[in-house]
Give the backbone structure.
Amino acid sequence: MPESNRSIYFATGNKHKFDEAKDILKNYNIKVIMIRKKAEEIQSDDLKKIARHALLKALESCKSPIIVEDAGLFVKTLKGFPGPYSSYVHRTLGIDGIIELIKNKSGREAEFRSVVAYGDSSMIKTFEGVVKGMVILRPRGISGFGFDPIFIPRGLRRTFAEMTLKEKNKYSHRAIALREFAEWYLGSHL
């Protein structure tokens, strides 16, 4: 059980996601405790459905308040691909594979989307974050993970991978969803 009502479990097998969540939620005095869990993901085009399913699975083994998160890169010229399949596509095609798919297409608009799902013994609630931007044809930067080296948020000049964790957390889809969660959580649980 978390040590106080300002602690919450985060079920994820992704240390990068955990580090981002920890950095964001500490600003709300919420301590995040990682439960290493490989999420059993359903195949769906809907991030919210995927996150809710992962949350229900996590709640089977953890009866305490818990969050899960799912995210994806949605490239407009690819009709939203890779979307919720981003992790799989990154593992199989990689960044070079996405670049190959878009290099001869017009338009580079894309958005990162995140869904944070919260659950406890009495409820499930989801929070969404979206950051619009563009994909580029040459990876830049060494920070972050996934498709961060080819995504530039709208209005900025650097990729997520060229930013520090703190800088990325000012703009990212995950940060938006986690801040929305934190504001709700503090407002309804304290």
